[in-house]
Amino acid sequence: MRSCGACVPLKLSVMTIRRGIENALERIESARQACGRTDPVELQLAVKTRSAAQCQEAALSLCALGCPILLGHNRVQEARATADAIHEVEGAQIALIGPLQSNKINQALACVNAIDTLDSSTLVKKIDSRLDTPLPVLVEVNVSGEEHKHGCAPAEAMRVVDSVLDSHMLLFRGFMTVGLHSRSEKDVRSGYALLRALYDRAEKDTGIANLTLSMGMSGDMEWAIAEGATRVRVGTAVFGARA
Q1: 151 occurs within a structural domain
Q2: Residues contacting 146, CB < 8 A, separation 6+
């Protein structure tokens, strides 16, 4: 495993990635202070379409900055293509943050450390039956109700949680959502508040403390943090627009 202590002098592209991460961390800290929070908020890098070299340098930068090394891939094939490079960095974790098709479960399990997009009891059973080691998972909830978005309906979320708790190898670690695509702070935050309510209910009902509440991205992380996000997923604010 390649540790961040073995980093070579940073090239310009790497400095750009690192600076993007530093800017994202500054935004997270400012948002925490603005709403009076003292608990931590994790940064997960959304690395959709990024090369193996970019992913590795992002992981190295997180390591050098003393952050949890959390990278999220939307597509299984991209996770497979970059997994070896990412896992050379000691402690790096890859999560699937995009939808998982049943025919790609085996491929996903071979390269990711967590799945953040469980949205049905059927998918829970299919994944659980193929595991021989525990796997952390988040339940994805479609809080906006937009038809093109993945995730279970809020009314179904606790049923999916129960399925995870009844499984043999899946570890329930919290919730994830993709917020409403809107410039209306009120409307976006309303969806995030709904997921926070499910989060609070799950902590009470399950007795599991310190669950993850993954919500908020480059354009709305401040609103998500104000509503209680414990993890934000950032891509373009660190890497720039996708080609």
Answers
A1: yes
A2: 180, 181
Instruction: Provide the residue range defining the domain that includes 84.
Output: 4-234
Contact 234, 222 (CB under 8 A): no
Judge contact between 179 and 143, C-beta under 8 A: yes
Kindly give, in sequence order, each residue whose CB lies less than 8 Å from that of residue 214, ignoring residues fewer than 6 positions away: 44, 116, 138, 174, 175, 176, 177, 229, 230, 231, 232, 233
Residue 185 domain-assigned?
A: yes
- Alpha-carbon dihedral of residues 212, 214, 220, 225, nearest 10 degrees? 0
User: Which of 112, 97, 106, 104 has its CA nearest to residue 212?
Assistant: 97
212-214 and 93-96: which strand pairing? unpaired
CATH number at residue 201: 3.20.20.10
Whether residue 239 is contained in a domain is answered as no
Token pair in block for residue 157 = 């979320």
Give yes or no for a contact between 83 and 56, defined as CB atoms under 8 angstroms apart: no
- Tens digits of pLDDT across the chain (243 residues): 555 644 444 444 555 999 999 999 999 999 999 999 999 999 999 999 999 999 999 999 999 999 999 999 999 999 999 999 999 999 999 999 999 999 999 999 999 999 999 999 999 999 999 999 999 999 999 999 898 999 999 999 999 999 999 999 999 999 999 999 999 999 999 999 999 999 999 999 999 999 999 999 999 999 999 999 999 999 999 998 866
Amino acid at 13: S
CA 221 from chain centre, in angstroms, equals 13
Structurally, the chain folds into a number of domains equal to 1
In a domain, 241, yes or no: no
